[in-house]
Amino acid sequence: MIMMASGAAPKEIADKLCVSVKTVNTYRANILLKMNLHNNADIIRYAVRHNLIGQDKAE
Fold it and tell me: How far from chain centre, in Å, is Cα 8?
């Protein structure tokens, strides 16, 4: 979720985690469904509100 909220592309996330792009997309869909989020903006908003990403965590 942190990588998604930070703007990483599915291919980039898949390469870093050694999984397929389809797996990343499935995980994203499951996160959206289970957390009642609707799009990437909601993921980013959630991550910022819960201090998962932000200016101090930009690295």
Answer: 8
User: Which amino acid would we find at residue 55?
Assistant: Q
Distance CA 35, CA 1 (A): 11
Residue 8 structural domain: 2-57
Distance CA 1, CA 32 (A): 10
- Assign residue 35 the CATH number of its domain: 1.10.10.10
Distances (CA, A) of 52 to 18, 20, 33, 35: 22, 24, 19, 15
SS3 20: coil
Q: What's the CA gap between 28 and 13, in Å, rounded?
A: 11
Tens-digit pLDDT profile for residues 11-39: 999 999 999 999 999 999 999 999 999 99
